[in-house]
Amino acid sequence: MPDQGFIVTPTTTLIDVALDPAHNVLHSLMLLAQSEHTSGFGEWVSRTATALSATEREMVKLVTIGLHYATVPTSSWPSFPAYVDHLAAMEPLALRDKLLDTYSSILPLSEQGFQGMSAQPLSVDKEAILADVDAYLAFLRERFDADHMDEALEAKAYTYVIDPPAMQALIVSHLREMWAKYLAPEWARVEPMLQDAVRAFQQVDLASMGVQGAIEYVTGQEFEENKWSCVLGEATHITFVPSAHVGPYIGRYGIACERAWILFGARLPKGVQIQAPDLDRNEILVRLNALADDNRLRILRFVAEQGEQCSSEIMDHLALSQSTVSRHLNQLAASGYLSARRVDGAKCYQLHPERIEETLQAISAYLLSS
Fold first, then answer.
1. What is the pLDDT of residues 70-125, one digit of tens each?
2. What is the H or E stretch that residue 31 is in?
3. What is the pTM of this model?
4. DSSP label at 207?
5. For residue 225, is pLDDT > 80?
6. What is residue 143's DSSP assignment?
7. Counting Cβ atoms within 10 Å, is residue 127 exposed (0-12), middle (13-18) or buried (19+)?
8. CATH label, 293-368, candidates 2.170.270.10, 3.30.1360.20, 3.40.50.2300, 1.10.10.10
9. CB–CB of 197/242 below 8 Å?
10. Of 42, 44, 32, which Cα lies nearest the Cα of 286?
11. Where are the domains of the chain?
């Protein structure tokens, strides 16, 4: 008999746009944990991060970062509370193994750094990994470099990983408390705007663009293979989810899975004629946020006057730390005002004058059209 695989049926990737409340709300919670290191998120993020108590701030980081892979959804849910109820009904050991299996899918670091993930968890000795905190941290160090691992936070997470019922109780109670106190009121406010974005993008034939074209069209950013390969390698279904809080950035769920979720700043797609003032205003606020800082304006002026500049030259010109300049450059690039490329290993930036004109036109259309 001939090999059953001698005829291969081409696979196609399903691409759609959806509200996806569980991923949407959880991502907003994750942004709270990142707000002190990243500028440009929606106003709700900075306002809520400031309002958090010290204990709440610690719990947000522990649940969304230290226990991340136990917390994130692996399918769509009709509401965030429905997803939390699902977590509460899971067997605690299954929830713990969900986290460890995802970690086990991450390939050990090489000299080049992150190597991606395998489609299935690698065979590991879970008892040995959980034998003590040093073994657990060593297991994580094999997969994450120092820039992507907070050892004190992971050591705290370990105390819950070895006690699955306590881990489940912590995740569920924290998510319910944050939903009631911070997330539910904000979701009620932004859901109509997000629904408008979903309806607008559903009018566009994203499937005909292919995966790369759809990502560039929806996110408004250039496709970089090295940034997307770990997410899209196994994906046969990609869902774009509009966010009211992510600002100019992109959020991603579903590493090395058949299903991937890509969160993008809620806006109206180009070419679709729909009246949605809230979406127009949201996009304008994202663009103006990038300009509403003296150092970021100085960076734009410097690049405009001198032409393409590398990050080290910008850092010297502004006399600011590398981390501060990097944060500003990331926001300006994500907002479209600068484009970046590698030159001899260094990141260099050019001005996008067209983006500035687009911003002025967007403001004019919003304020002067009647």
1. 999 999 999 999 999 999 999 999 999 999 999 998 888 877 666 667 767 788 89
2. helix 21-34
3. 0.90
4. G
5. no
6. T
7. exposed
8. 1.10.10.10
9. yes
10. 42
11. 11-272, 293-368
